[in-house]
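Q: What structure does this chain adopt?
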Amino acid sequence: MRQVFLDTETTGLSPHAGDRIVEIGCVELLDRRLTGRNLHLYLNPQRSSHPDALRIHGLTDEFLSGKPLFEAVVGELLDFVDGAEVVIHNASFDISFLDHELGRLSRPKFALGVDKITDSLTMARELFPGKANSLDALCKRLEVDNSNRALHGALLDAGLLAEVYLRMTRGQKSLAVEVDDAPVHVEVIETLDLRQFTLPVVTACDSELAGHDAMLDELEKACKGGAMWAKSVAH
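A:
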């Protein structure tokens, strides 16, 4: 199973207000193992980041001015995610930006080029209802080291998300039971003929019988005449 963990950084909160993507990070897993194959792109958004966004990612206009436009790297991005399950934390946010960028180029929506999109935030809310489920909160809860995360970075966050996802989904990968084809050794145990023994029969004494009858009477009263053994005796 091929999975790609994806994260973006943007100039602001709304692509419909003109905000653009400034960074994309992708980390590949194959059969739940990191392959070491990643994709990291900085983009020129052709506009300044909102001050709040700049405080989060730290990517200045000067740094981004010489980076490629989205249209120059879109093929590389789509090739990387092609046919994979793409896991994104708060997927609706990143997908809205990706779809907006693709729409500017008259390209199909992002989801049409991948196997499926999984929102890890939805998964976290189901696992930890009523708790904070930001990536930082999950790292702390699941003991994923994020000490290098002074600023948000798309590739760093994608790698942290992969670790968080693996810990949220750890456990048995398949319900299939492996069958060993090696010959099975069957041990034959000799049976014992019990007819050679005389087993003692211990009967109840009068006081034990009287105590038993008294207990039945109490039970009969508690059942208000509905005890099944009393009906059996009557018949």
